[in-house]
Amino acid sequence: xxxxxxxxxxxxxxxxxxxxxxxxxxxxxxxxxxxxxxxxxxxxxxxxxxxxxxxxxxxxxxxxxxxxxxxxxxxxxxxxxxxxxxxxxxxxxxxxxxxxxxxxxxxxxxxxxxxxxxxxxxxxxxxxxxxxxxxxxxxxxxxxxxxxxxxxxxxxxxxxxxxxxxxxxxxxxxxxxxxxxxxxxxxxxxxxxxxxxxxxxxxxxxxxxxxxxxxxxxxxxxxxxxxxxxxxxxxxxxxxxxxxxxxxxxxxxxxxxxxxxxxxxxxxxxxxxxxxxxxxxxxxxxxxxxxxxxxxxxxxxxxxxxxxxxxxxxxxx
Amino acid sequence: xxxxxxxxxxxxxxxxxxxxxxxxxxxxxxxxxxxxxxxxxxxxxxxxxxxxxxxxxxxxxxxxxxxxxxxxxxxxxxxxxxxxxxxxxxxxxxxxxxxxxxxxxxxxxxxxxxxxxxxxxxxxxxxxxxxxxxxxxxxxxxxxxxxxxxxxxxxxxxxxxxxxxxxxxxxxxxxxxxxxxxxxxxxxxxxxxxxxxxxxxxxxxxxxxxxxxxxxxxxxxxxxxxxxxxxxxxxxxxxxxxxxxxxxxxxxxxxxxxxxxxxxxxxxxxxxxxxxxxxxxxxxxxxxxxxxxxxxxxxxxxxxxxxxxxxxxxxxx
Lengths: 317, 317
Description:
Chain A is an alpha/beta fold and 317 residues long. Chain A has 13 helices and ten strands.
């Protein structure tokens, strides 16, 4: 696999035109006051499948053999992205979803026609995916360590930089680094002066250590409500992060909930905890962000609101 | 007081330009599939103060004596709308907020510089407001039975009809009828063929009966989670409703929660229960709406999400 480039991000943007949603950018007087910055929120919660992951999944699927089935390993947004991409492109998608599987996400994958495999033991998920690839002569699309996935994720930032002029800083949450490395390629392809920061939960701090040590420091026993950010970085994302990142913001769990609530109450947007990780540094306030024009990539809106509505229902009776 | 006209709505739109947010219209493949209609959601949850009420409040305040303080009686979105309008227009606002007062809404009113009065007995709220008007030589702005308020609320539909072509039907929730009667004036000023439906909770069915009987049937002991819709219609709104409405959709409590959850999960929008009342008929499906181009006015996003975030926080520890 070769590292993706800015040209790959531009190609991905062309592939996604008319397929992915051109998501809006929203602003909030209150967020600007609190952060002492001019903040532009890129609403990937309004993306298809409710998350930026559709971009990378669709771009990667278009770059594989038209006749081979796709295999992916994910219990989250990547699984939904691959399933929908394959439905649009009339391909078969096999999704290995290790427990715990959110029933809403499983149902969404199946609605898109994806074939779901839940291994009895979550530790067998990788071998299960590998066996499927062999059996079906399929192609595995990794959630972030894939050049087409990274290029696809970069299109969110490319789009944002076309929607808003003169951004100084971009913030995005980091898990495996697909979104952040794509964001780096897009931003610095347009303007090497833009500072890209990765925002990482204190309870899942592998990316920061991996960049510092220049080796993949595996994520062990992560403790964060930001599900999507519990993974380790990959061989393709790490070098991009090292070459491009201005730095990291480390975010406490309490800050994640506060930021999520701020966005619900003040901006009326449903976002998932991972998305709030990139908002949290703005509420501190953070000297590196003050008086800057800051773009924030909201990763998605797939929060589990089941209990909120169960409570509302119980009030009625 | 004279009844407002389409020209008043147009004048209000001019007054609100650059002050109110030009709120976006959003769509959802899933909502279209479920309703078998083409649905356009007017996002007044993104309006200032989080609800359409800012429109009517601001328009009314601009039409009063510049030097007289404003008095309003509301524990909800009207109070916030008046407080913010007065801050912008450098006027003093006195808000009589009968219990139960949501502490978040009270704090918001005070942040805007509004002076809050909480009568010891909620039944004294009206006399409290009347006394304030006398004492302060102030002017009372009613929440819906005011021609400038109605004209202001109508600007949401006027804007929507400029954003989306050829709508057949408009849906809006009904409490006192300010939003619905403004919507009627705006729609029929542009095109008398547009059908406007009022959506009312089954547990607060006074507007339907008032229109049927052509007299104000008072709302007694309403039972609905849609707080904003618990009021009776007024002398100004009733004749507009009688002359213009195509009909009513009566919505059960269970349907309100289902519709609210649909909008959170599928469209990633935070909406309040009253807003969900206008979405609910689309999920039935409803023959009168199928194969139509339907505009839905989302009244606001001021839902109380406190317990959801309290639960999230408790998971962390």
